Amino acid sequence: MNKMELLNEDKKRLWHPCSQMKDYEAYPARLIERAEGVWLYEAGGRRILDAVSSWWCKIFGHGNPHIRARINEQLEKLEHVIFANYTHEPAIELAQRLGGLFSDRLPRVFYTDNGSSAVEAALKISFQYWRNRGRPERNLFVHIRGAYHGETVGALSVGSLGLYRDTFKPLLFKAVEAEGPDCYRCPFGLNRTTCDAECFTSMENALEENNGHVGAVIIEPVLQAANGMALYSPRYLVKLSDACRRSGVHLIFDEIASGMGRTGKMMACDHASIVPDIALVSKALTGGFLSLAAVLTNGEIYDAFYTDYTESKAFLHSHTYTGNPLACAAACGVFDLFDDPSVLPGVLETGSLIRDKALAIADHPHVGEVRSLGMVTAIELVADKRAKEPYAWKERTGYRVYRKAERDGVLLRNLGDVLYFFPPYIINGGEIDFMVETAINAVKYVAGK
Ligand code: PMP
């Protein structure tokens, strides 16, 4: 089929994620034929810079030869096998490497096949842990405002973004929402780099009011990615970790977006030097080659499930593609690349180049904030800079910037009125210039000079 025929078939048959399909009338899907490094190549030869790492997973760029070789090598031997009662080398090697992420304090690995399913498994593990330990009344989960943990029903229940959640509210289970950090519009008038997480009081109250009934707190450490790349102080996590320990509540860190080097540390929780009870890793885990996630737990949690079958305490949860060997091999390839000690310092260095360049737009009358950590830089657009007043959502300001930048060759998919750079770590200086300049021009085009 030629390009036109393919796009006609796409229009006729496909339902794309997170899309109002009617928008495709004005902007048909872009037909990508191949990709390399930071570049996506459309049928017909035009190229687009992937500034969002294709939903945050392509940390080493498209077509990384080492990851590809590890998959190919595995493909010659074993592409898939049932993972109940059977195992294979890539799953074992990867479990060893994952354990190293948390100094072997989360030694147990439960594989799932995407981020949301890892969240579901983690919630169920914590829930069942309390039942297995004879404390079924500890059945509440606490999350913070602005939380996003995926879009399956359980994950939405501990999320708080109305855009994804409101329609499904009647389906969701009850959870407790604490006010989280909101550093751009800090109600205490403080600064995220110098504050003492004064906003933690709300979480403290939530834990106290529900004392004895909370099983776990789930949170994205330091970076609330889907919430407009909101960044907050690691102090909040230190306080949270202390409070969870005091009240015997599990602390679940969702590192699905923030992990694997994105914030300049291997895991975002390393900014606070904290190891949670359960951690979730996905997205960048395979360098964006294949779908895989891991739920890591401490030994104490695992032990609550380990007994005779007839006690009915096993974790009976499964996904067909659990521990897929190709995906595990890809993830091992990603860890091989992290063996190079220059990768993380490189993330910091490249990230600061992007931040410094993006700061050129900070004084624009409709740029509320330029915020940055590691290899994430976000630009938040507002209607009124002094009042920090957002644009009316129906104006779709961020979306219009995204479309303009895309016409000019940069994929900059907006989160509401937040535009952000979340590129592959291998982006070079010339590509950074092109990416940021194109974005700034698009902001000026939509929001005025
Ligand atoms: N948690 C976080 C923090 C995420 O950013 C995402 C995906 N954006 C998920 C969970 C869900 O992952 P997936 O899209 O693979 O289901």
How does this model look, in words?
The protein has 449 residues and is of the alpha/beta class. It has 2 domains: 31-63 and 342-447, Aspartate Aminotransferase, domain 1; 68-338, Type I PLP-dependent aspartate aminotransferase-like (Major domain) (Aspartate Aminotransferase, domain 2). It is 35% helix and 15% strand. It is built from 15 helices and 16 strands. The protein has helices at 3-13, 23-26, 53-56, 65-75, 89-101, 115-132, 153-157, 162-165, 201-209, 234-247, 299-303, 325-338, 343-358, 397-407, 429-447; strands at residues 32-36, 39-42, 47-50, 108-112, 140-144, 176-178, 214-219, 223-224, 230-231, 250-254, 278-281, 293-297, 367-373, 376-381, 410-411, 418-421. A 7-stranded mixed β-sheet has the order 4-12-11-10-7-5-6, sandwiched between helices. It has a 4-stranded mixed β-sheet with strand order 1-2-3-15. A 3-stranded antiparallel β-sheet has the order 13-14-16. Strand 8 and strand 9 (230-231) form a beta hairpin. Helix 14 packs across helix 15. The longest helix has 19 residues, at 429-447. The mean pLDDT is 98. 4'-deoxy-4'-aminopyridoxal-5'-phosphate binds next to helix 6.
